[in-house]
Amino acid sequence: MLRPPGILSALAERLRADPGRPLVTLYDDATGERVELSAATFDNWVCKLANLFADDWELEPGERLAVLMPTHWQSMVSIVAAWTAGLVVALDPDVGVSASVVGPPSRTGPRAERHVLACSLRPFAQAEPAPLPPGWLDFANEVSPQPDALIMPAAAASDAAALVAPGGLLTHAELAARGRAMADDLGLAPGGRLITDLNPAEQVGLDAALLAPLATGSSVVLLVNVTIARRRLLAAQEQATCSRWSDG
Predict the structure, then answer these.
(1) For position 91, what pLDDT does the model report?
(2) Signed CA dihedral, 9, 11, 16, 17: sign only
């Protein structure tokens, strides 16, 4: 399967080496939800979303897509799907974009010119029960029916822009370097397991919860609405090898 070089080549290698091993595990103690995505399942969602972006929405490589989401696995697959479709991810709502992926409680929308995809964040990627603003589409209805394989693979150069960051644009190669540097900072060795409550749709969380695990062939446990005491329990239960918390 064709993938852009840089950070996504690490995902391709993970799929070749060990597709069934967990890549992302999410706990939300407010709902009692535990979701675990293997590398293969994660990639299926990535392909579905990339097909929506490139085929249904006809977004061209280099166009910008905003991901404005709380801590969740759907934000991670949205970001990787955007890169897979050759798009540039924007984490800043004030950056002009062609399309957006948003989660609750947003109901006003960012500056998306053509498309907004809403994620309910309900278990099993269920549809949003409340009415969406006019023109918005629901993740459950639009993404789930898409094929699990890429329809229109996009080949991006390693020096192609991948992320709109506060300091400017970052390339696919620079994202891979950031992932390796963050893994060193976390103490996340190849095959390790990070536990964190950082949001992958924010810059620090992106580096720690998404780029570092991908760059090292590791996995991540995302915690939402979890107490400090519960963190320790889950870290032991999930055999975490390192941690990083938003409160230090």
Answers:
(1) 85
(2) positive
Query: Nearest CA to 1 among 145, 174, 151, 143?
Result: 151
* Per-chain mean pLDDT for the chain: 90
SS (H, E, C) 58-70: CCCCCCEEEEECC
Residue type, 17: A
If you search the block for the tokens 């924007």, which residue do you land on?
90
167 pLDDT higher than 90: no
User: Is the pTM higher than 0.90?
Assistant: yes
Q: What's phi and psi for 2, nearest 5 deg?
A: -70, 130
Nearest CA-CA partner of 48 in 152, 185, 168 = 152
CA 219 – CA 209 distance, rounded (Å): 9
CA pair distance 110, 83, nearest whole angstrom: 20
Cβ neighbours of residue 178 under 8 Å, at least 6 residues apart?
A: 170, 207, 211
